[in-house]
Amino acid sequence: MTALLRYQIALLLRSQRWLPPVVLFGIFLGVGVRSGQPILDSLGYQAAALLPVTAWLVRIAVTQEPEAARDVTAAASGTHRVHIAALLAAAVCAGVLGTVATVVVTLISEPMNVDHTVEVSLPAAGAAGLLAAAVCLLLGAAAGALCNRPLVRGRGLSMGATALVALLALVATGSPAKYAVSGLVKGSITGAVPLPVLPLAAAALVAVAAAAVATVLGALRG
C-alpha cells in the first residue's frame, strides 16, 4: 500500500490536474478571507471551501490513470488496493492543502469575536479550525468516492453528481460539515471556541463507508 500510495500521489502531482482545484481554493480564500477578520468566521469559511476542492481532487485521483496502466496495476496489486490508494492520495493532498490554509488563516486573522468584545484563544481556534477542515475533507472525499469511478462512469454525470453531493454535504440538515462550520460561525458571535469532535467522528464513518462501497463495487466490476 505504501508503494501504491506513493505512485498515486506522484501520478497526481505530475499530471498537474490538481492545479484547477487548488487555484479555485485560493480564489475562495482570497475572496472570503481578509487579514484582521474574526478568526472563527475565517476558519469556518476556509473549512467549507475545502469540501468541494477535496471532492474534485478525489475525482482526479480515481480517473487519472489510463485504462491500460490501471489494468496492469490492478493485476499486480489488486483492484481494491489500487482504488484505496487513489482515494488516500487525494485525501493526503487535500489534507496538506487544508493544513497550510488553516495555519495561514489562523495567523492573519484577529483572535476576537465578531463584535470585538471577547478575545478568542488562538491555539484553541486553530485546533477547532483543523478539526472542522478535517470534517469537510472527509465528507468531500466521500462525495468524490460515491460520485465517480467505479460507481458513476459517465464524465458529465459524475461531474454533476460530485458538485451536487458536495453542495448538499455543506448545506443539508444533519450534515457533519454544516454542523462543524456553523459551530465556528456561532462561536464567532459569542467568542466560545467549539471543538467539532462528534462531527469529525460522524464524517469519518461516512468516509469509510463511502470508500468501502466504492472499493467493493470496483472490485466486483473489475
Task: Break the fold down into its secondary structure elements and pairings.
Blueprint: H1 2-15, H2 19-32, H3 39-63, H4 67-77, H5 79-108, H6 122-146, H7 155-171, H8 176-190, H9 197-221
Helix pairs in contact: 1-5, 2-3, 3-5, 3-6, 3-7, 3-8, 4-5, 5-6, 5-9, 6-7, 6-8, 6-9, 8-9
Work out the number of β strands.
0
What proportion of the residues form beta strands (DSSP E)?
A: under 5%
- Average pLDDT works out at 91
Which spans of ≥5 residues are poorly predicted at pLDDT below 50? none
| Biggest sheet architecture | none
What string gives the helices and strands in order?
A: HHHHHHHHH
| Straight-line N-to-C gap | 19 Å
Shape: elongated
Query: Helix proportion of residues, in percent?
Result: over 70%
* Structural class estimated from helices and strands: mainly alpha
If you compute it from the alpha carbons, what radius of gyration comes out, rounded to the nearest whole angstrom?
18 Å
What's the helix count?
A: 9
